Amino acid sequence: MKLDRGDAAHAGADASSHGLPRPTTWPVAMAGGITLTGWGIIASPVMLVAGVVLFAVSLGGWIGEVRHDRHEG
Q1: How many CA atoms does the CB half-sphere of 29 hold within 13 Å?
Q2: Residue 49 and residue 66: Cα distance in Å, rounded?
Q3: Separation in Å, CA 38 to CA 19, 41, 55, 57, 59
Q4: Alpha-carbon gap, residue 67 to 58, rounded angstroms
Q5: Angle made by CA atoms 30, 46, 53, in degrees to the nearest 5
Q6: Is 36 inside any structural domain?
Q7: Model-level pTM?
Q8: Domain that holds residue 51
Q9: Do the domain assignments include residue 53?
Q10: Is residue 36 within 8 Å of residue 51, measured between CB atoms?
Q11: What are phi and psi of 18, to 5 degrees?
């Protein structure tokens, strides 16, 4: 089935009306924190601390954004 412009616009409206979250960079930052934590376990305590801090900040930011989005909608 081929979509024309009207169907594509309608599909976008359906996706947003079902409560899909908006894009965010927090998961990428959290992945970086997990990576640094793993690297820090092997290499250096400094990297371990940096990874844990980045992970914690990312988790807090992501949870805060989800809570904020839920209160808006």
Answers
A1: 15
A2: 26
A3: 34, 5, 11, 17, 17
A4: 14
A5: 30
A6: yes
A7: 0.69
A8: 22-72
A9: yes
A10: yes
A11: -90, 10
DSSP 8-state code for residue 43: S
Rg (CA), the chain: 19
Is 8 inside a domain boundary?
Answer: no
CA 12 to CA 20: how far, in whole Å? 11
* In 9-59, beta strands by DSSP E: none
Block residue for tokens 């290499």: 43
**What domain count does the chain have?**
1
Residue 50 within a domain = yes
Query: Mind listing the pLDDT tens digit for each residue in 26-55?
Result: 999 999 999 999 999 999 999 999 999 999
Query: Could you tell me the pLDDT band of residue 63, with boundaries at 50, 70 and 90?
Result: very high
